[in-house]
Write the structure tokens for this entry.
Amino acid sequence: MAIRKIARMGHPVLRMTARKIQSSELRTPEFRAVLRDMFETLEEYEGIGIAAPQIRESVAVAIIAYPADQEPKVVINPEITVLDPTPQGYWEGCLSVPELRGLVYRPRKVRIEYMDLSGKQQVVEPEGFEATVYQHELDHLFGTLFVDRVKFEPGASPIAFTEEYARYHAPGEDDEVGELDD
Ligand code: ZN
């Protein structure tokens, strides 16, 4: 068991499509070790989600630790479908993109079909902020980072360093946008 070094933007593993897991792999010591390390690394950095490529393992596994009062979900081989494309914006951060925040618009509601740890197919239909958490993590399994989804428009200032974000952009209670920091 180990807290792993996080792959940061620029590391090729973050740009690969992660390999799918066979159900026969679920009980192997190798897979269990990757999963344990993902949990330990997530806990160490107090994230609300982590994807295997972030610990330099190119396999299609993510942990969603949101909402905080629920057991974290292990999501394997996910397939995503948009249920409500209405864009909703949240300021996102990422362990693999330290010191930066970006305002990202994503579909409001999605369906995710995935394999759980026992090899069973499961379905979730998160919406709102939870939908953004899933989409951010699952993006990691397809080589995409939140910065790819920031819309660069003159005058929009949609991306900021954390210090400037806190000073100038952190949402107030009445704002429509929220924030995600994983
Ligand atoms: Zn991330």
Summary: The mean pLDDT is 93. The pocket of zinc ion is lined by residues 94, 96, 136, 140, 182 (CB under 6 Å).
